[in-house]
Amino acid sequence: QSVLTQPPSASGTPGQRVTISCSGSSSNIGGNTVNWYQQLPRTAPKLLIYSNHQRPSGVPDRFSGSKSGTSASLAISGLQSEDEADYYCAAWDDSLNGVVFGGGTKLTVL
Amino acid sequence: QVQLQESGPGLVKPSGTLSLTCAVSGGSINSSDWWTWVRQPPGKGLEWIGQIYHSGDTHYNPSLKSRVAMSVDKSKNQFSLNLNSVAAADTAVYFCARHEGLYCSDGTCYGWLDPWGQGALVTVSS
Description:
The complex is a heterodimer of chains A (110) and B (126). With 110 residues, chain A is an all-beta fold. Chain A has no helices and nine strands.
């Protein structure tokens, strides 16, 4: 049982906009910044969004993040086949004194 | 740019100790970053194991705290993970990562995991 809650799956067709939600509590998302990681099949996770909405160099602006209260969202616009991957949200948790992850959302491009 | 590489035995016997090392290249382990271990059981999600600072300060996941120990070797620019009394449930891909930008200010904590190592599959089996 993950501390942060994500839908297990999401899907969309090429060109569509898809959003993935991440729900937490005051000890994690509510009080700290949220990061998103993309894990392509059989590879290590890669930082996709940091500090709620910042994109690392090289990440397309099709990917965007937002946070409100104890929830966060990842939006992917102009969906492409190469976006098919698992997506994880994460945040620092003050109670755990460590990092907590969502259970991951498997994105399928139809 | 910083790169990380895990190494260690791929097979550990039940009740034994899992030992992994993460070599840091392109940067110094003496930086202001924390050095992290994350694992992923086959077909499942990510679990934070813990992290260590170059001073030796650590944060461990409470669910694993009684079995985990991390250390830093500054001379080799690497850090290590030991997990004892392993069982089949500890079978996973183990990733090391840099926890960059970790700081807390005015009640808000920042920081992100980047980069990650490629991962090392460790199987617990007799």
